[in-house]
Amino acid sequence: MMMPDSAPRETAREKLLRAALHLFVTQGFHATPTAQISREAGVSTGLLFHHFGDKETLVNELYLSIKKEMAEAMRAGDDEGLPAGKRITAILRTFILWGISHPEERAFLDLFYHSPNICEEVKEQAYMDFVWIGEVYAGAVEQGIVADLPHPLASAIVLQVAGAIIDVAGAGCPGLTTEEVVDAGLGVLWHGIGGASTRPDPGPDAPNHRVLPP
User: Which terminus of the chain has a lower count of CB atoms within 10 Å, N or C?
Assistant: First the structure.
């Protein structure tokens, strides 16, 4: 006797979002007609317009859904009981591992982060899911765990270094496992954002370096 499939069926809306993600990343927004998205999703174009109204609404809904998924993953990797430094490291590690395991989603965010196709209201709505990370960072600044950098600079350092870690780990690094690449990359990242309390004091002849916070 065959057991019923307990896995939830993908809805038409989910199929459309998945198809749009792949096509927007591989072809671009303007080169992807709604008819192709519907065909890729295996649903009618009428259903696309029923769920999203137009292609502009679709790309904004896709942006929101990816941002929300990423925020939920980072929340799941957070542990409020950890010291501030270890807590930030855990959040960053989760962000990096999410990027490695979601290459198309990451590529989409890279392509559309500054795109005029994403309206400011949607960007603001997506940002609200990440406010808590800024609060964690601010608390770490007060403790001297991370440097008191302007928000745009701190964000740029984190995103650039984390992006490089994701790229190298995703492509594979000879002689290193994914975890080893991530660990090494996080050590470099702390060189950029680490505060005074992350610097050990081994003596005047020691090399100038920082370590992951205790």
Answer: N
Predicted confidence band of residue 192 (pLDDT cuts 50, 70, 90): confident
SS3 176: strand
pLDDT digits (tens, 9 = 90+) for 3-52: 455 557 889 999 999 999 999 999 999 999 999 999 999 999 999 999 99
Look up the pTM and report it: 0.85
Phi, psi of 119 (to 5 degrees): -75, 155
Contacts of 63 (CB under 8 A, 6+ apart): 108, 109, 112, 118, 122, 126
Mean pLDDT throughout 112-135? 94
Q: Rg for the chain (alpha carbons), in Å?
A: 21
DSSP string across 7-47 = SPPPPHHHHHHHHHHHHHHHH-STT--HHHHHHHHTS-HHH
Question: What gap in Å lies between CA 114 and CA 119, rounded to an integer?
Answer: 10
Q: Which domains does the chain possess?
A: 8-53 (1.10.10.60), 68-198 (1.10.357.10)
**Are the C-beta atoms of 92 and 158 separated by less than 8 Å?**
yes
CB 171 within 8 A of CB 191: no
Structure-derived torsion over alpha carbons of residues 213, 96, 162, 126, reported in degrees to the nearest 10: -110
